[in-house]
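2 proteins. here.
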Amino acid sequence: MVEAILLDRHLIVPASAYLQGEYGQSGIFFGVPVQLGRRGLERIIEYELTEEERQALERSASHVRETISVLE
C-alpha cells in the first residue's frame, strides 16, 4: 500500500474505506477494493455483486454497525 502511494502506482487493493452509497452502504468504514495513488485513496472500485454476495455484504455491514453502537 505504501509503495502504491509513494510511487503513484494506481494499484487496486482491498482496504477499509468510508462508504457514501457504494455497495448500498453509507456512513460506515468497510473493507472494499480501492485504487491507491499519490493522493492516497483515489477511488472506491464497485464491482457488481451476485444476490448472495450482496446479502453477505449487508449482513457483515450490519454486524459492524451493531459493534459500533455497542462501543458508543
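next one coming up
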Amino acid sequence: MRDRSRFAILRALIAGYAAVWTAVRAPALLDPLDYAARRLDPVGPLAFLDAPVADVFLVGAVIATPIAAALLALGCHERWSGPAAAIGFLFVTTYRNSWGQLFHTENLVALHLAVLALASFSPPTDDEDGRRWAVEAMAVLTVGTYFLAGVAKWRISGTAWLDGDVLRHQIAFDNARKEILGDTSSPFAGWLLRHGWLLGPAAVASVLVELAAPLALLRGRVAAVWCGLALLFHWAVLAFMAILFPYHLLGIGLAPLLPVERLGTTVAGWTGRFREASPTSTLPG
C-alpha cells in the first residue's frame, strides 16, 4: 500500500517544493557565473571560501539538486537523494547569497531538508509513521524561526515597535528602495501609510503572532488557528511590502504542525472513487 504517513506526506511536500524551486530559480542561481570574482562575499557555511567555485561545479550543483530533491519527494533512494538534496539546496542558496543581497525566504526549506536527510538513515519502525522524531523536529524548527523573529523585533526595537512607527519606516523604505531600483513594489503600501492608525495594531499583531508560535506545538485547534494567523501575516507582508515567502504562503513551511496525513487519505479516497466510477471494458471471449 502506498505510504500516506505524516512523514511521507511532508517529505513529498518539502522535497517537491525544493525540486520545483531550484528548477525554476536555476537562471538566478547561475548568475554568479557572470559576476566579477571581487564581488564574492561568502556567508554562512561557505564563509571559508576565498575564491569562486569552479563554473562546472556550480552548474553541476544547480542541475543535480532538483533531480535529487525530486527523487527524495518520491521516496526513491533516500539514503543518497536525501543528503544530496539537502546539501545541494544549502550550497546553491548560500552561494547565491554570497554575491550581494542576503535572501532568507528559503532558510526554513534548508532546515527541513536537513531533517529529511537525517531521517533517510532512520528506517521506519512500527509506530505511527516510523519517523515521528523527524516530524517533531521539523515542527520545532518552524516554530523556532517565527519565535526568533519576534524576539529579534523586541530586542532591536523594544516597545518602540508597538506604536507602529518602526513598521511605518520599514514599509516606506523598502518600497521606496524598490521603486528607485526598478524592482516590484507594493501598490497598497501608499494606502496603508496614509492610514497610519492601522500600523500600531498591525505591529502589535505581527510580534504577538511570532512570539506565540510555541503554542502551535500543542497541535490540534491551537496549531490550526496559529497557522491561519501566520498565513495572514505572510499575505500582509506580500501585500504591503511585496516580499514573497512562497514556502510559507503555500502552507508547506507550516505543514509539520498540521495533520497533513489526512491530505493523503483524502486524495486516495478521491482516486478510489474516480476508479470506481470509471467505465471498464472487457474483451469478448
